[in-house]
What we know:
Oligomer: single chain
Shape: globular
Amino acid sequence: MTFDKIAVVGAGAWGVALANVITRAGRDVTLVARDAQSAAIISERRESPRLPGIKLHDQVRIAGADAARHDAILLAVPAQQLRAAVTMIAPLLTDRIPVIACAKGIERGTHKFMTEVIAECAPSALPAILSGPSFATDVARGLPTAVTLAASDDAVAAALAQAMGSTTFRPYHTTDVRGVEIGGAAKNVLAIAAGIVSGRGLGASAAAALTTRGFAELFRFGATFGARPETLTGLSGLGDLILSCESAQSRNFSLGVALGQGLSPRAAQSGKLAEGAFTAPALLEMANEKGVEMPIASVVAAILDGTLNVDTAIENLLTRPFKAEG
């Protein structure tokens, strides 16, 4: 089982980063822009406007929507745009070709995880997910990064990890697809909360408490939806949560900082894509349906929809009844 020809759909920051790192691993890579104008701009500049200062590897080909067939396809598009991207490539897919979601989120309205969207829109494909503690700039520059790649077929997951991996980009493989998806989706919401703590100047002790209690929420949610404990405590769960809750490179954390500093939800989100803002209401609705207690995620969703202000949200969390840790 070999994956020599790989397409990366989506020519934003993450798409360019993945195209570069997979090319360095020795694969034949095509970067697929979703419109002809974007493809032309990137072809000319060898750089994406979404990742300025990072040159696209010389061997990466640029294509429009009509990309040739490949051995595997990575979807480096935002979670709420994944359905449109899968629908676009579905007619080109061969049976059991791996289609790997690289977005961290839950589809609003349907409450579907990314691999479920792939399965629905491209029934002949083998859905997979790539997630973990990684920033596009670090990956594009070749800085050491470890992530998790999950597919229901362990042999496929292992072969994909081998095809994309290198000395600086290490995908660990698993068959726990749902666990990897939950870790990536939930941590974005919790990173917004961590940013609020930072923006409000509540201190390092509060930040540590928030991250720890946030992980407890992530773990409860994951366990309810069938995730394995080792996945939730691994790279795509705890690892990604730690990264996103302490770095301004995280767009979700930065959104939280802006909220903590007093900006309105609309102003804080202006011109920036933070996946957690879209995932928060879906995550909370799913948690409520299963009776999973997620107080931090709840206040994040309420702040984002304008039904709760930051100070009241903090007060609500700090005045919750004392209880045993767990």
